[in-house]
């Protein structure tokens, strides 16, 4: 049997890391992805790096009730690409994705479908799957996504130690297939057709109004965050994604407070908010304002992932989570 390589792509890691490279934060709705060329280029890189023909690439993502959406269906129809889906739980989090990757790698290694596995992920939970595949004589290469400085982004130290080799996906693969989302432009007001004006003695013609300028994302954010007359205007403290505003958070230690400095928290929050405002429509911003104090799951996840990446602490304390969410609302309301 001829030798092959097989690719395992953790879509959550790939897209979040690509978003950090392109937009500066892991917020996925801040980017637009051309999936077909992205996957095709990853397949090409895998063959060139391993020196072996590709058997297939496996794309791991999550969907509601594990039913693929339209985009995921198109991914599953790509040549030599196998779609593997976990679920999105009631809490909005992915379920079963890491387990599917681990089970597939273990089964494929036992059956020796390929001699080299290339894993596009940085998840610590896949360490044992890597070691299980290696025990069956398979070489496992972890291929990381580069950050803006062309360094591996968010790869677990345990995964680095377990892998046979750490490779870097070329930055051009991301730069050519992933783009930062631009907010849809607000159309300029079109002039209303006016009937011809016949000059009349002793009458003056009122000046025409100036053209309406297209508002910037900052203008849209300000408009969306403008409180209605009957609404309170005080900034609300926020304790959790579905928690209540204004609740005190007693009992924190100095160690909790030292985990993530105020400047670091501000930097993370500013990047997430600016990316969201840059890519959101006026309706999106207004909906965010109406849903306060609930933070959309994708935004909350980006806040936590970005903070974890900056601090190197992947189990953030409740104090840090509280501060991130509280300052998120302060930043949104002051935008």
TrEMBL record:
<dbReference type="GO" id="GO:0004540">
    <property type="term" value="F:RNA nuclease activity"/>
</dbReference>
<protein>
    <submittedName>
        <fullName>NYN domain-containing protein</fullName>
    </submittedName>
</protein>
<dbReference type="InterPro" id="IPR021139">
    <property type="entry name" value="NYN"/>
</dbReference>
<feature type="domain" description="NYN">
    <location>
        <begin position="6"/>
        <end position="165"/>
    </location>
</feature>
<dbReference type="InterPro" id="IPR047140">
    <property type="entry name" value="LabA"/>
</dbReference>
<dbReference type="Pfam" id="PF01936">
    <property type="entry name" value="NYN"/>
</dbReference>
């Amino acid at each position: 049997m001829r030798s092959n390589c097989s690719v395992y792509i953790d879509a959550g890691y790939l897209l979040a890391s690509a978003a950090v490279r392109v937009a500066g934060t892991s917020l996925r709705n801040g980017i637009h992805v051309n999936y077909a060329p992205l996957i095709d280029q990853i397949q090409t890189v895998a063959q060139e790096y391993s020196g072996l023909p590709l058997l297939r690439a496996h794309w791991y993502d999550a969907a509601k009730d594990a039913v693929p959406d339209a985009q995921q269906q198109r991914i599953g129809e790509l040549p030599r690409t196998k779609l593997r889906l976990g679920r999105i739980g009631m809490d909005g989090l992915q379920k079963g994705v890491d387990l599917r990757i681990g089970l597939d790698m273990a089964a494929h290694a036992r059956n020796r479908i390929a001699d080299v596995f290339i894993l596009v992920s940085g998840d610590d939970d896949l360490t044992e799957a890597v070691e299980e595949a290696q025990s069956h004589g398979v070489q496992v290469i972890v291929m990381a996504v580069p950050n803006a400085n062309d360094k591996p982004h968010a790869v677990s130290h345990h995964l680095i130690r377990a892998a046979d080799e750490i490779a870097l996906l070329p930055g051009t693969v991301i730069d050519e297939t992933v783009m930062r989302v631009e907010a849809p432009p607000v159309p300029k007001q079109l002039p209303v057709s006016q009937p011809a004006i016949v000059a009349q003695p002793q009458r003056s013609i009122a000046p025409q109004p100036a053209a309406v300028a297209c508002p910037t994302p900052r203008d849209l954010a300000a408009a969306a965050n403008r409180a209605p007359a009957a609404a309170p205007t005080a900034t609300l403290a926020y304790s959790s994604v579905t928690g209540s505003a204004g609740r005190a958070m007693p009992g924190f230690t100095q160690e909790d407070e030292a985990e993530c400095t105020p400047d670091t928290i501000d930097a993370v929050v500013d990047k997430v908010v600016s990316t969201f405002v840059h890519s959101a429509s006026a309706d999106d911003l207004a909906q965010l304002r109406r849903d306060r104090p609930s933070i959309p799951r994708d935004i909350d996840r980006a806040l936590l992932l970005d903070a974890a990446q900056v601090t190197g602490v992947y189990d953030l304390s409740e104090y840090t989570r509280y501060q991130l969410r509280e300052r998120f609302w302060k930043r949104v309301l002051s935008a």
